[in-house]
Specification:
410 residues, alpha/beta, Rossmann fold, 2 domains, seven-stranded parallel sheet, six-stranded parallel sheet, 16 helices, globular, binds adenosine monophosphate
Length: 410
């Protein structure tokens, strides 16, 4: 099945061709006809499946090639600034052979440029909820003409506490509209939002929500807490990488890892929510262009970020919830590229590993880096440990027990 047989407009087909897509991905094949037909839709698909084009292409086709009136007709809500910027870029790319205009609206930057862009007239707004609300309240924008509303990454949007403002925004859109809903998971609270926002939605589910992309090889590397950074350096020295995403659980941790990697002569960018918008944009642009070979990031900042050619993902810290594991390692192996994902695990992470394995329904292979001098891990009852190991929470070093629990005969 080709894009040409999907009834997309000629201008959109040219945009797809220019983007270099040869054939539609499964979610595109299934969602595009529904959206072109005007129906509401709940799509559950992991990131990296081509979900952005799955909604952008039929929406652009429905808008037609020409600007009408200059008031926004499509609103896409995204949980983070980076996703808003990325999805707006995708719309612009696909719409390059039409006159349609897309504008991104997000916080962390001045109001001036965005306001000026909105006043010039716009067809598609891709926004984070908070900043959009500012423009709705001050009268810069109205949603009276919205004919398509897209709620993307809904699970994350609700995790971030956006539910009240999202509800308010939905209430400001005309009742007679098309609503598209994308979420990696659809638990009951999300189902509840869906049932008041959507009318008789079609459901498009691609693969298991929990599955790890088949093009990704992933492994866990058990290590003592105080050797994590050394193992990270050793892995970087050993693997043949072009660009690596390193995940930290905390912003402070991300800064610290980045500082130490710089000392080891790596070109490093950092992405987390405490950085200014300009720093975040510079980090992403530099990582995309290859100026930085490594980007250290936290989960919120990196959710859904699409950087072509990420060759490796290294979880310096195992993610706090299993879903984030799938999202994190989904940054590599996107589309058809093959990627590697490594997770450093300390003995105290044994429970997290089990939770992830249950969630994804598979065992994660456990590996040792050859040539790395692993310090022997000695189990000592917490009460007799006179001093805690450097950087490790007191009483959490129970290496032997922990490792034996992941031991699967290697
Ligand atoms: P998404 O899931 O929308 O974040 O897309 C993941 C990646 O796949 C992005 O780099 C897209 O540009 C790419 N992509 C989306 N659809 C296709 C397609 N049909 N063929 C090749 N690459 C695609």
């Amino acid at each position: 099945m080709s894009f040409a047989s999907l009834n997309l407009s000629p201008a959109v087909l040219r945009g797809v061709e220019a983007a270099g897509y040869a054939e539609p991905t499964p979610i595109q094949l299934r969602a595009i006809p529904v959206i072109l037909g005007g129906g509401d839709l709940i799509g559950s698909a992991q990131t990296g499946t081509g979900k952005t084009a799955a909604f952008a292409l039929p929406i652009l086709t429905r808008l037609g090639a020409h600007v009408r009136g200059g008031r926004p007709r499509v609103l896409v809500l995204e949980p983070t600034r980076e996703l808003a910027a990325q999805v707006e870029t995708a719309f612009r790319d696909f719409a390059r052979f039409s006159d349609l205009r897309a504008v991104a609206v997000f916080g962390g930057v001045g109001y001036g440029n965005q306001r000026a862009a909105l006043r010039e007239g716009v067809d598609i707004i891709v926004a984070t909820p908070g900043r959009l609300m500012d423009y709705l309240k001050d009268g810069t924008l109205t949603l009276r003409d919205i004919s398509v509303l897209v709620l993307d990454e809904v699970d994350r949007m609700l995790d971030m506490g956006f539910l009240p403002v999202v509800k308010d925004i939905i209430g400001r859109c005309p009742k007679n509209r098309q609503t598209l809903f994308f979420s990696a998971t659809v638990p009951p609270e999300i189902q509840a939002v869906a049932s008041f926002a959507l009318r008789d939605p079609a459901r498009v589910e691609v693969g298991a929500n929990r599955s790890v992309n088949r093009t990704i090889t992933h492994a866990i590397y058990p290590v003592a807490h105080d050797q994590k950074f050394d193992l990270l350096l050793a892995l970087l020295a050993k693997v043949d990488f072009d660009s690596v995403l390193v995940f930290s659980r905390t912003k402070h941790g991300a800064d610290k890892i980045a500082r130490r990697l710089k000392v080891a002569n790596h070109q490093v960018a950092v992405l987390h929510a405490n950085r200014s918008q300009n720093q975040r944009l510079e980090a992403l642009a530099g990582f995309r262009s290859g100026k930085y070979e490594i980007m250290v990031a936290t989960d919120i900042a990196a959710r859904g970020i699409d950087v072509a050619g990420v060759t490796h993902v290294i979880n310096f810290d195992i993610p706090a919830n299993p879903e984030d594991y799938v999202h994190r390692i989904g940054r590599t192996g996107r589309a058809q590229a093959v990627g590697d994902a490594f997770t450093l695990v300390t003995p105290e992470n044994a429970g997290d590993v089990r939770a992830i394995e249950r969630f994804i329904g598979q065992k994660i292979p456990e590996l040792k880096l050859e040539g790395f001098e692993y310090r022997p891990l000695v189990a000592r009852p917490a009460a007799t440990v006179p001093q805690r190991a450097q950087g490790s929470p007191a009483g959490t070093l129970r290496p032997q027990r922990g490792f034996r629990r992941f031991g699967r005969g290697r």
